Structure formats: C-alpha cells, structure tokens
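Hi F.,

I've been meaning to write this up properly since the lab meeting, where we talked about keeping a consistent format for the predictions we share between groups. The idea is simple: the sequence comes first, exactly as it goes in, then the structure tokens exactly as they come out, then a line or two of notes. No screenshots and no reformatting. I'm using this chain as the first example so we have something concrete to point to.
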Amino acid sequence: MKLLSGEEIAMRSWFVRLTLPVFLAFCAYVVLPDVHPVDAQEKKKDKKKDKKKAADLPFPPKLPDGKDVVTITSDDFLKAPDTIAKDVLIAKTAPTVDFLYYPGQTYKASIWSNWGDGLAVNGKYYSSIGDHNAPKGNAFVYEYDPAKKALRILCDVVSVIREMLLYLPGKIHGRLDMGKDGWLYFSTHRGGTKVTSDANKYQGDWILKCDPKTGKAEVVAHGPVPKHCIPTSVLDPERMIFYGGTAPGNDVSDGVMFFAYDVANNKLLYSCPDGPPRYMILANSTGKVYYVPGSDGNVGPMMRYDPATPQAAPVKIAASLGLRSATQESKNGMVYTVSKGGKAGRAMLFSFNTKTEEAKEIGPAAVGTQDYITSIDADPAGRYVYYVPGAHGHSENDGSAVVQFDTKTKTRKVIAFLSPYFKDKFGAIPTGTFSTALDPAGDKLYITWNVKRGAAAWDCCALTVIHIPAAERQP
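Output, unedited:
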C-alpha cells in the first residue's frame, strides 16, 4: 500500500474542509422538513409565548365584572364555519345558553380537566373535574341547580379517602351514577400514567359514594381489582351493582379487567380479563351489561354479562358495534352508541336493541373535521341523540358544535356553535368535553367543557346549559 506524502495529506484535508459544509447543507436541504429558519425561530417564539400565557393565567377563572353566570341568546350561535359538511342541517332558532366556571379551581394544576361522564336526574346535573396532578392529585364532584343557576362542590376525593398516601388520584374518569338509595357512585383514576407503582405503594383505585343531599361521602371499596385503576364504570341503580373496566398499574402484567361489585353488600361478584377500557352498555330493563373487549371505541364483537348468574363468565353475542360512548336505555329498549373514529375511520353511530340484541350502523357522527365523541345522550323517546365532536380538544375547529342526530330521519343538525362567540366575548374557548347530559324533560343539555383561555392547551373547566328551543325538538 502506497503511503501518502505530507503534501498529499494536507491537500486532501483542505479538500474535505472545503466540501464537507456543502455536503452537509445539501443533506439538510434534502432530508429535513421544508421549514425556513425564520419560521422555525417563530415557532419557538410562539411556544415560549404560549408557555408564558399559560403561566400568567389567573386562578380561579372568572367572568367579567365579577359575574358568576352569564345567560345569552344570540344568532351568532347559528353561524356555521366553513368546515361543516354540506349535508349537515343548521337549527333555525338560536338556543339560550348559560355559561359559568366551575368553582374550586383555585390553584394552578397540572391541567384542570373533565374526563368522566355526568348525570341529569331529579332536576339537577351532577358532574366531575380533576386537577390531573400526580402522584398526588384530587378530583371533585359537583351539583348544578338550574333553578338557581349555581354550581356547588359536593365532595372531593382526597377528603373522602382521608389518608395522605403517596398516591392520590387526580381524575374521575368513569361515570357518575345514582343508586336507588339516592347516593352518587363513581370510581377514581390516576393523574399520570407512571405513578401507579410499588414505589408509591399503589394498591389500586377506589369506588366512592356521595349523598347529594348532605355532601357526606364514603369509601365503598379500595382496589376491587388490586393494583388497577378504574377509568370505566356504570352502576345498575336497581340491583346496586357497580361495573368497572380497569387499567393495570405499572407493576402488574395483566391487562384491562372487567369486574362486577355489589355495592350494597361490599362484595366482588366477578372479575375477568379482556375487559372494556372505555365504556359499557347497561340495559336497565334486564340488568345485563354489554361491552366490546379490549377496544377503546373501535368496532368489535360484543360480550354480555348477566347478573342473574353472577359467577358465570361473560358470553359473546352475535352483534358488533363501536362503543366509545353510549346513551342510557330508552323506554322502548334502544341504546345508541358511537365508535371512536380516528385511525380506524370516521366515527359512526349505532343502535342497539336490548330486547333482540341486534346492532345496526345508523350513520356518521361527525359534522366537520372533528369526530372523537366520548359522551352521547338520547331523549326519553329515543328520537334525538345529542353529542359534541372533538372531545379531547380542537372542538373549536368546527365551531364547538353541539349536534342533534335524528334517529328517525338519520340527519345531523347543529343546534349551536359556541365558538367563536365565547372566545370573542369572554376569552373562553370551549375545546372539548367528556360529559354531556340531557335533562329527562329533553329541554336542556348540560355540557362540562374543557376550556382554553389563550394557551394552546385547555387550562380550566366551565359548564354550559343549552336550552333547546321547542321548535328544534319536535316529535
């Protein structure tokens, strides 16, 4: 092998120094995204500004002039953005809307947020929010009185648990349901995904109950499935059975579990793997519970659990549907569900007949660009189904649309666009919800919103009450 002279080495070193920067610049041009350096700098500035906005936001959130609630009727609620599909109807009569912030948001949290579904019963609306803090968080249960237009805190999770543990849940992710004893039943969930560990002495999450008349609250069970959170729940109010779908803690290897817990006798009736991660159907008429195993809302085969034989395993039935959320059973035995959408395709609505166990796809749910829906409600007759697309944020991209689906005509109609009105008037952007509830009279729709006040992510929670005009809900 020929050795290079000192002069040749120097020449080659000079050549490399000259050509290497050109080569690297060419690679950067070819490989890296088409972003101008100035654009990248502007994005960094925007992120810094956004963080500053979030840091400067005041708590508790307040309406102008010290008001606790504002009540508005405006034709602006009927102005559709360009994203709305041409075949979507727009209401002709604007609703009256009450807007108020949730009390108790007195400190800067990881993210004040709503994750669990609410309940309208006995002339009141019950809902929950949490601070999402971890490993020590807190969550709160509220009662709204539409006659007084006022929210009050019924209980908070930490006060019910009454132990300053290393782990305290920052969410209520399941439903609030009322038993025949008049108490509200619900479960807790982690504020962060990496805190349910042996290091934090995590034993599992809680089933709790609260008396809305007195605010008294108690622990029903701690860790009905050991070392599992409980993000999914529904209560059979007549049989007093609490059904749950779990999420495993960090130091257990099993997956999502299904369980049935007798809250009247404090007894675990049954548990098994391949449970429901997100939602279940309760047939009040029969007590049977249905779910899609292992699915967070995508279409799949359904399982049925019958409390008449509590030790028997759930059985697969012939029906398949998408189950990210479900209505309560109507008087004629119908339940309506919605699939998750997203990568699995657009969100679709389904009907499920609890008498025949037949499922049918009845139409698309989205009205614009957003199709993630986590709470849906039907009127007592089962004619109209209500929901809000864009649950996990970006609902405002479609005007924060409140949708009414007519199960008879299979048409979608927006009864209100809440954005940009509330942004322009009050600096509040309703960006998504995990809790809607329709008054049993069918005239009021309660929505617990995750709200943005100028930052990129939501930072607080607010309630809107949509007073649905009679002309927009004719039989």
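Notes:
Residues 41-103+384-475 form one domain.
The two ends are 94 Å apart (CA to CA).

If this format works for you, I'll send the rest the same way.

G.
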